[in-house]
């Protein structure tokens, strides 16, 4: 599968879904034993990646060594209102510690103020430091955007050279919806990945999002998705 995972899906099996899952633990009180469990589960079920806060990246890299599971971290999470230098450094440190992918949060306030040049440049700087051999995913936080803003934000992400548009942090007032994923996919075409995240709990929900155009699923419920039913 390509870094974006852009392809058509027929009937999606639980094993196929597993390879689209970023197995995620971003809560404030995550403990070492929970991170170890997360990595064990990701290796057992062949998830695409483990996604954690930057503090855990080096440990996760070691725990996943030789498993084929990727390491994902975040930048500017969850609010997106850090200054640009902080976001760039956080992304760089993540890569230096062993992250294969960085999920950055767009500055939504600046976007809503229509400071599009700032938003574009900030994403471009993170994309540059992450590099072409790793994936930068940009979280646009769809729950606080109008449909027109979702289109505009997705276009900026594509223009900036990122590999994915991601719907949500999971810390906002709403998460991924079929409608939003379909809108983003229609906007970016087949050239970018679309990561659906936030509130995805069941296999059926994940399948509906993939059918709408998602090529990655961010969830803390991956084990349930691929084992129950």
Distance between the termini: 26 Å
Number of domains: 1
Mean pLDDT: 95
Q: Which class in CATH terms?
A: Alpha Beta
- Structural class based on helices, strands and sheet pairing: alpha/beta
Shape: globular
User: Would you tell me which CATH topology applies?
Assistant: TIM Barrel
**N-to-C SSE string, H for helix and E for strand:** HEHEHEHEHHEHEHEHEH
Overview of the structural elements:
The protein is of the alpha/beta class and 229 residues long. It has one domain: Aldolase class I (TIM Barrel). The chain has 10 helices and 8 strands. An 8-stranded parallel barrel has the order 1-2-3-4-5-6-7-8, surrounded by 7 helices. Strand 1, helix 2 (32-45) and strand 2 (49-52) form a beta-alpha-beta unit. Helix 4 (84-96) runs parallel beside helix 6 (116-130) and helix 6 packs across helix 7 (147-160). The protein is globular.
Ordered list of secondary-structure elements with their pairings:
Layout: H1 14-18, E1 21-25, H2 32-45, E2 49-52, H3 57-63, E3 70-75, H4 84-96, E4 101-105, H5 108-112, H6 116-130, E5 135-139, H7 147-160, E6 164-166, H8 178-188, E7 193-197, H9 203-212, E8 216-219, H10 222-227
Parallel strand pairs: 1-2, 1-8, 2-3, 3-4, 4-5, 5-6, 6-7, 7-8
């Amino acid at each position: 599968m390509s870094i974006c995972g852009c392809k058509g899906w027929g009937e999606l099996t639980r094993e196929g879904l597993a390879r689209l899952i970023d197995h995620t633990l971003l809560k404030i009180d995550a403990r070492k034993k929970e991170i170890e469990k997360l990595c064990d589960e990701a290796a057992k079920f062949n998830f695409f990646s483990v996604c954690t806060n930057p503090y855990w990246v080096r440990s996760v890299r070691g725990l996943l060594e030789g498993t084929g599971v990727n390491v994902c971290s975040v930048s500017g999470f969850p609010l997106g209102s850090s200054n640009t230098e902080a976001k760039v450094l956080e992304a760089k440190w993540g890569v230096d510690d062993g992250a294969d992918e960085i999920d950055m949060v767009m500055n939504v306030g600046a976007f809503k103020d229509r400071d599009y040049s700032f938003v574009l440049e900030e994403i471009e700087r993170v994309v540059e430091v992450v590099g072409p051999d790793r994936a930068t995913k940009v979280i646009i936080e769809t729950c606080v955007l109008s449909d027109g803003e979702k289109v505009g934000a997705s276009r900026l992400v594509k223009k900036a050279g990122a590999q994915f548009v991601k719907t949500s942090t999971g810390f906002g007032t709403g998460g991924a919806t079929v409608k939003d994923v379909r809108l983003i996919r229609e906007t970016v075409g087949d050239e970018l990945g679309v990561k659906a995240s936030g509130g995805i709990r069941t296999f059926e929900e994940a399948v509906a999002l993939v059918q709408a155009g998602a090529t990655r699923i961010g969830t803390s419920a991956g084990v349930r998705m691929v084992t129950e039913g």
